[in-house]
Amino acid sequence: MRTRFAPSPNGPLHLGHAYAAIVAHDTAKARDGEFILRIEDIDGDRSRAQFVAEFLLDLAWLGLAWDGEAVFQSHRLASFSEAGERLNAMGLLYPCTCTRAEIAAAATQFGPDGPVYPGTCRHREIDPRNAAWRLDVGKAMALAGPLEWLDENAGLKTATPQIFGDVVLLRKDLPASYHLAATLDDATDGITLVTRGMDLFPASHVHRLLQALLDLPVPTWLHHPLLIEADGRKLAKRRGAPSLADRRRAGEDGHAIAEALRNGVLPAGLSFSQGVHHAP
Ligand code: GLU
Questions:
Q1: DSSP letter (8 states) at residue 275
Q2: Which of the 8 DSSP states describes residue 232?
């Protein structure tokens, strides 16, 4: 088996990331598997090499060693556009120029990422230059047929990617959206168990559909609880959660912090969103 920790270098890591990395690392080690590090750095405007350098130090400080060299999503842009072309040739994509504000104004449903795109451009003539490309989820589901996926904690799920509406797969400013890039990379990296936080649970419905459309191997998933603050919100750097790098530089003991997280012991004010995940 093989799993991964896949941080985006658009800010420093905090304790929530440390927990995600520990779950992935410990699960791999308990099963005699591999744990790889993938840097999800395709958002060129927001990704910083400085954060990547800190991530490597943070993981070493926590006592988490990854197998092989770290892999970088930005080195794989060609595979993302190839997959986009393939889906387009299947008649499953359409260009869209709607702004966030237009979508919010026209939406009648709310999904995991906010207002659900109501399909405004699906049957419009759109100049594809400067457009984002959306997946026609209804058409894609009709082609793929009923799909299931397995989460080790939540059990067998029926894929319902339509909860997101027609998701963007190729962004105007980027070669791929998170959904397309992560799904393709998990296949390229030979990931058999996708470990990540519960916040990305709904995304797996979309990823399962993409796997079916692109004939990719289907992994198992393990979505772990999140670290939340006293107000119930997810720990976030923008609300001032101290970074691992700050703790490291302040001389805190990374191995001890990792051990406490493993045992479900959290600093005052923090808790798990739903029970502690015990690595098998
Ligand atoms: N890069 C994503 C993040 O930092 C995680 C993606 C994943 O684990 O699938 O939130």
A1: S
A2: S
CB 12 less than 6 A from any atom of ligand 1: no
- The domain in which residue 247 lies consists of 2-76+182-272
Evaluate whether residue 279 is within a structural domain. no
Q: Is the separation of the CB atoms in 59 and 25 below 8 Å?
A: no
Distance 86 CA to ligand 1 centre (A): 24
Q: Going by CA atoms, what residue is nearest to atom 6 of ligand 1?
A: 6
Task: Tell me how far the alpha carbon of residue 127 lies from the centroid of ligand 1, in angstroms.
Answer: 32
Q: What is the dihedral of CA 199, 200, 202, 203, to 10 degrees?
A: 150
- Give the CATH number of the domain where residue 163 resides: 3.40.50.620
Cβ(36)–Cβ(66) below 8 Å? yes
Locate the ligand 1 atom nearest the alpha carbon of residue 195 and give its number.
8
Report residue 48 as tokens: 């910083």
> Tens of pLDDT along the chain (280 residues)?
999 999 999 999 999 999 999 999 999 999 999 999 999 999 878 889 999 999 999 999 999 999 999 999 999 999 999 999 999 999 999 999 999 999 999 999 999 989 999 999 999 999 988 899 999 999 999 999 999 999 999 999 999 999 999 999 998 877 899 999 999 999 999 999 999 999 999 999 999 999 999 999 999 999 999 999 888 888 876 777 789 999 999 999 999 999 999 999 998 889 998 754 444 3
Q: Is 82 helix (H, G, I), strand (E, B) or coil?
A: helix
Residue 278 lies in a domain: no
The whole-angstrom separation of Cα 99 and Cα 107 is 12
Domain count, the chain: 2
Closest ligand 1 atom to 197 CA:
8
- Asked whether 182 lines ligand 1 (CB < 6 A), one says yes
The answer, yes or no, to whether any atom of ligand 1 lies below 6 A from the CB of 41, is no
The ligand 1 atom nearest the CA atom of 5: 8
